[in-house]
Amino acid sequence: MSHDLHESLRDNVRILGDSLGRTIADDLGQSFVDKIETIRAHAKRGRQGDSLQQRELIEYLRQLPERDLLPVTRAFNQFLNLANIAEQHYRARFRRVEDYKPGTQPVLGELLSRAQQAGNSPRKLVETLASMRVELVLTAHPTEVIRRTLIQKYDAIDECLTAIESSEDYPERGTRAQGRLEELISQAWHTDEIRHERPTPVDEAKWGFAVIENSLWQAVPDFHRDLDNLLLDTAGERLPLDAAPIRYASWMGGDRDGNPNVTARVTREVLLLGRWMAADLYLRDIEQLKTELSMWKANSALKAEVGEGTEPYRELLKRLLNKMEATRDWAKAELDGRNYDGGPIIETRDQLYSPLLACYRSLCDVGLDTIANGALLDTLRRVAVFGVTLTKLDLRQEASRHAQVMEELTSVLGLGHYQEWSEAQRQEFLLGELESRRPLIPRRWECSAESREVLDTFKVIAQEHAEALGTYIISMAAEPSDVLTVALLMKEVGGQVTLPIAPLFETLNDLDHAGDVIDQLLTLPGYRALAKDRQEVMIGYSDSSKDAGQLAAAWAQYRAQESLVDVCNKHGVDLTLFHGRGGTVGRGGGPAHAAILSQPPGSVNGSLRVTEQGEMIRFKFGQPDIALRSMEIYACAVLEATLLPPPAPEPHWREEMDQLAKVAHAAYVGVVREDPDFVPYFRSVTPEGALGRLPLGSRPTKRRQDGGVETLRAIPWIFAWTQIRLMLPAWLGSGEAFSRRLEQPGGREVLQEMRSQWPFFGTYLDMLEMLLAKADVAIAAYYEHRLVDEPSLKALGKKLRTRFECLENVVLDILQQEKLLENTPLIRQAIDVRNPYIDPLHGLQAELLQRNRDADGAISADLSRALMVTMAGIAAGLRNTG
C-alpha cells in the first residue's frame, strides 16, 4: 500500500477530528476541549508504555466533576464514529485496501482469467455465474448501536469528504463542502446518540429496507453492469437478463426465535411494508423510463400489445405505472386496515418483469441495443434481484414451540402425549399425517396462546405468494421429526405454499449428528417427495462457540459440512448451506472471502446463504460503493470455491484437529462450565448486567430471565467480554491446545504446514491473530481492579490473563512473528489510531459501573446515559463487536 494512500486516511481523520473539536468548543468552551486533549494525551503516552501516564489517565478521569462525565464520553464516542467514516471512505475509494492480508484481495476480472487458465471455458464461466445463488440474509441482531438518524448524517459526511478530495481545481467547491461538513458534525454532536426506546421488529425491518433504498438499489444494477462488461471482455456475452447471482433475504420481522415481540401480525405488517416500498421504488424507475423511452421504432409484438401509436414504449409503461400506483395504494390500505377499492395490482415478479422485457426485446429487435442496455436493463436487473417484495422474508422458530403444538394437539385428539413418544413413533405419526387427505387440526380448536401464535404464523404463509417468503428455519433442531413437524403444520395451515425447511444445527452435539439427521430424513420417501431433491441446512456459529469454545466449534462446523455434503451427494440432492455468522470472530465473523474459501471442498457448489448481522450490514452495504465491493467479494469467493475448490485436508491434519479440538474443548468447559467462580466473575467484571438496559434491538438479551450463562444469547455474551477487551469466548482453550502440541515432537512444523497449506486452519489462525491484537489484558485487569472484590474471583481473573498471554506467545511462535499483525499494517494502524480514544471510555465505563453498583442501579439519568454511551463508543471503536 503506497504511502500517500495511508496519508489520505490520516488526512480525513484529522479533518473530521478538527471539525469535531471546533463544534465542541462552540458548545462547551475551549477549556472543555483542553480537558479532552489532556485525556487523549495521557492515553496516547500510556499506550507508548508509560505506566505513570496510565495511572494519571485513570486518576484524571476519576477526578472529573460529574457534570463532565456525559460530554466526555460523548466526545470520544463521536470521534470513534468519525474515524470509522474516514476508514469506510478510504476502503470505498481504494479497491485494493487490504481488508485481510496483502495479496488476498479478490478482484473478479483476475479471477475470471485464473479460472480460464485452469481449463474453464468462457461458456462455463457464464453458466456458473448465471446459475449461482448467493443469498445474503439481513438480520437485525442487537449489535447496531448507532441510531438511524445519525447514520444518515454520517453518510452525508462521507459525501463531503468526496467533495473536498475532488475540489483541487475548484477551491470554492471545497470551501462549500467544508462548510457543510462543519454543519453535519454539529448536527451529530447535538443529536442524542442513544435511543430512548428499543426498536420494534417493524422498526428494524424499516431500517433494513432503508439500506436497500439508500444503497443497494443503486449498487445492484452497478454490480451487474460491471459483471456484464467483464463477461463481454472474457466470454463475449452478457449475463442472462433474469440471472441474479446475489440476492437478498431478511429475518427482520420473521425471526421469532426467543423474541416474543415478533408475532404473526408483525410478520404480515413487514411483508406489506416490503410491498409498499418496492412499489414506491419501482414507480421512480418506471417514471424515468417513461420519460426516456420516447422512441417510435418497435417490433410487431410490442405494437400488437399496445396498438398503433407514435410512442409505443411510453404507452406500455403508462399502463405499468398505473398498476404500480395501484399496488402502492393497495399496500397502504392494507397497512392502515382499510378496504382497497382501486384497480388491478401487481402481485408477482413476472407481472412486472414481462412488460419491461417486452420493451427490451423490442428495442433490441429494431437495432436500439444501446438504449435497451441502459436504464431499462438496470430496472430489469433490479426486478431479477428484488422481485416485488425487496427481500424474501425468512421465518425462524424454535423446535420446542412446534413440538408444543403437537403435544397439545395429540392430547386433545386422545392420541397420547407427543412429547413422550420415541423419535420412531413421532416419525411414523408425522409421515402418516403428511400423506393423509383429511385435516388433522379441528376447526374450532382452542389451544394455548403460544400454540395459537405458531399456527397464526403458518396462516400468514398461506396468505402470501411463495416468492415473498424465503426459508422456514428451525432453531435447536436435533431430530428428523423437528423438520417433519414443520412440514405437517405447513400442509395443515399453510395452504398451497410450501417453503424450504432448514434445520439449524447449533450445539456441538447437534453439529456432530447433523449428517445423520439429514441422512435419516432423505431416506424417508414421504419427506423426499416434499423436498424435491433440494435440502437447505443452517450451521450455527454463535451458540456452538458459546457451547464449546471457538476452536472446537470451528472444527465441528467444518466436519458437519463435510458430512452434509457426503450425505446429499449420496442421495442425489442439491445442498445449500446457510451460514449463521455474526460480526465477531467468536460468532463466525471475519472477512467473507477468506471465510468462504476456508469451507470444505464441495460445500460451496454455486449456492450459499449467509447472515449479515447488525452493524456489519452498515459496514458492508450502507453505501453504494462499499456495497458494490462487498457483492464483488462474495461473487469472487463463491465462484472460486465452485470452480477452483480448496484441496481436501490431509488425513494427518484431521487427526491433528481432532486432538487440538479435544484439548481446547476440555480447557474451555473446565472454566466456563465447571469453575464455580466463573459466572460470578463474568457478572462482576463485565457490564453484562447493565447491557440489558441499552436499547439495541427488539430481542431480549436472554432466552430466559433466570439461570446462568447458558441462558444468555450469544450476542450479549460476546458483547460483554468485548467491552472489557478480554474477548474470552473466541480464544479460551486454544492456548492449551497449541501449547501442548508445540511441546511434542514435530508440533511446530505440522502446525505451520497446516497454516500454509490448509485454508481452514490458516484462516482460523489469522482471525485469532486479529482478535488477540484487539484484546488488551491490561484494560481487563483494570475492570477487575475496580469492580471485583472477592479474592477467589481475582485469582480466576489473573489465571485467565495468564492464559491469554501464553496464547499470544504461542500464536507468534507458530506465525514466526515478533508482534501481532506485522503483515497487515492497515488493520494494525486502525487499532493503534483508535486505542487512545477507546482507553478513556474503558476507564469511564469501569468507574460508572462501580458508581451504578454502589447506588444499586439508581444513578442519575445523565450518568446512566454516559454509561450507555461508553458501551456504544467501545463498540464503535472495535467495530465487529456482535
TrEMBL record:
Forms oxaloacetate, a four-carbon dicarboxylic acid source for the tricarboxylic acid cycle. GO terms for biological process: carbon fixation; oxaloacetate metabolic process; tricarboxylic acid cycle. NCBIfam families: PRK00009.1. GO terms for cellular component: cytosol. Its cofactor is Mg(2+). Belongs to the PEPCase type 1 family. It is an enzyme of class 4 (lyase). Homotetramer. One of its GO terms (molecular function) is phosphoenolpyruvate carboxylase activity. This is Phosphoenolpyruvate carboxylase. The lineage of its organism: Bacteria, Pseudomonadati, Pseudomonadota, Gammaproteobacteria, Oceanospirillales. InterPro entries: PEP_COase, PEP_COase_bac/pln-type, PEP_COase_Lys_AS, PEPCASE_His_AS, Pyrv/PenolPyrv_kinase-like_dom. The gene is ppc. It catalyses: oxaloacetate + phosphate = phosphoenolpyruvate + hydrogencarbonate. Its EC number is 4.1.1.31. Keywords: Carbon dioxide fixation, Lyase, Magnesium, Pyruvate. The active site is at H141, K546.
